[in-house]
Amino acid sequence: MAASVLVLGVVVAFAVGRFPVSLADIAVALWSRATGVPSGLSPAVEAVVFQIRGPRVLAALACGAALAVAGAAFQGLFRNPLVSPDILGASSGAALGAVLAILLSFGIFGIQAAAFAGGLLAVAAVYAVGSTIRSGDPILTLVLTGVVLGSLLGAGVGLVKVLADPYNQLPAMTFWLLGSLSATSPADLVPLIAPVVLGALVLMALRWRMNALSLPEEEARALGLPTGILRVVIIAAATLTTAASVAAAGIIGWVGLVVPHLARFLVGPDFGRLIPASALLGGGYLLLIDTLARTLGPVEVPLGILTAVIGTPFFIWLLASSRGGWS
Amino acid sequence: MTLAADDLAFGYRGHPVGRGVTLTIAAGEVLALLGPNGGGKTTLLKTMLGLLPPQNGTVSLDGRPLAALTIPERARLVAYVPQSHHGTFAFTAFDLVLMGRTAHGGLFARPGARDRAVASAMLERLGIAHLSDRPVTMISGGERQLVLVARALAQEPRFIVLDEPTASLDFGNQGKVMRQIRQLAADGLGVLFTTHDPNQALGHADRVALLRDGGVMAEGPVGEVLTPERLAALYGAPVETVVEPGGRTAFLPG
């Protein structure tokens, strides 16, 4: 059922927008691309479907799924339902990389590459620092290191913004930090989707082990889990999906934190079902948000704002009506 | 099969807790580890489980050091029942017991039909099959303890190690859990449990080891080791003995 809702969402997302495309035209365009038969449609319709809206729909699905799956995996790994995929500094590292690239007047690919590298480097640094500190609970040490280094990176972002040209660079930075898919082109898809699929496949493959891994450390090890190695692999995979998503769409909060809760509400805490459910819900949710973002008003609303404005009341309603017994 | 500690020193890095401990648990036998709080019972237990590396000496299974086994190999031989379960997520009792099958599949393996059958059978064996679909956060402490025992059994181990299995349970549930422990030994498992109630050791264990300040004061069959004098020395407090006309003995704090 979830999958059919998602398909419906994709169709709607293709059709609506500043340049409406009829369902028939979409079908004809896709059919002609698949079979090689000329579609007979106007070049404008083809361009909207394949150059503009198609990449954007795919990017929204990939980013939403990436953030939600990474969030679900991290909530299990860190044994804490309040954790989001940027807990280890992936987003703040990516933000610093991106604003630096904007400050240095890099092109759009330069910005994305810098954001991706910044996210990976930040998490690697957090992990390296956190695992050299050998006192007490390794999980808590890692989270605290992430929080502390994250705020240091945040200070770095602030510094770059102060140094930026306030007329050109600063608005670009602010807009990037709020998240948007408006500039997505077909060329963006491979650098986004390849790491997301790779990371998500690893997380999907390990999802049965995440159940036991979410238990207290000693229980997990007594059940036969090599917790140390698993933790490294899951952090690497979740960071890969998060960094790729942040690089493509900027910082989109909320999805990675709350979508796993919605998924848990629907399918229960078993990670075997939670991880695929999070991927579907996250992709669908961000697609909905992105479709609204480009159709609501004359100016695109940043995704980071919409995810929170729409998601928060819904989540509060869910909390109130379910009495929270699922987490 | 035997699980043995030989001249074992245990503790945390830079913080030794005990030394010179030599113990043996055979299949079909219940060994109680008795001692005051802070005497090192839990630390010794974790070392016997291979969760903490020995600081000196060895823990071995049939002469093979635990350290030579892989983590999954170890989990298929020795299972752990923690004192209480504080999971983050509200797994159902069935899902929690199914996690006991972790060491029987590969890292990427989905639990199969046999894993599910074993999990169901263990819930059945402990008489808690009716709790299968209930979240473990919404059942009583005694029921949760039985779920943890079922999970340990789902590992199909040869030894079960329980950390104060009755510490948070009411009177009735204590009896229930202890009877199950006795039954496990009757089914051929070696059992090691800690307690600070000498009567529990007296009533349900074959042998007892008295642990004080990180060392074993005495070890042997319960009837021989558990004397009022030894208990008084173990706890540093006077102990009264009540003997039933039928010959059953109980100790009371004096």
How would you describe the overall organization of this protein?
The complex is a heterodimer of chains A (327) and B (254). Chain A has helices at residues 2-15, 23-35, 43-77, 90-103, 108-132, 138-163, 169-178, 189-205, 207-213, 217-222, 227-249, 255-267, 271-295, 303-322. Chain A is an all-alpha fold and 327 residues long. Chain B has two domains: 2-77 and 157-253, 3-Layer(aba) Sandwich (Rossmann fold); 86-155, no CATH class. The chains are: A mainly alpha (327), B alpha/beta (254). Chain A binds chain B through residues 75-76, 79-81, 134, 205-206, 208-209, 211-212, 214-216, 218-219, 221-226, 230, 264, 268-270, 272, 325-327, and chain B through 13, 46, 49, 51, 71-72, 74-76, 78-80, 82, 85-92, 95, 98-100, 102-103, 105, 107-111, 135, 138, 151, 155.
Topology (SSEs and partners):
The complex is a heterodimer of chains A (327) and B (254).
Chain A: H1 2-15, H2 23-35, H3 43-77, H4 90-103, H5 108-132, H6 138-163, H7 169-178, H8 189-205, H9 207-213, H10 217-222, H11 227-249, H12 255-267, H13 271-295, H14 303-322
Chain B: E1 2-12, E2 15-26, E3 30-34, H1 41-48, E4 56-61, E5 64-65, H2 71-75, E6 78-81, H3 93-98, H4 113-125, H5 141-154, E7 159-162, H6 171-186, E8 190-195, H7 198-204, E9 207-212, E10 215-221, H8 222-225, H9 228-235, E11 239-243, E12 249-253
Parallel strand pairs in B: 3-8, 3-9, 6-7, 7-8
Antiparallel strand pairs in B: 1-2, 1-4, 4-5, 9-10, 11-12
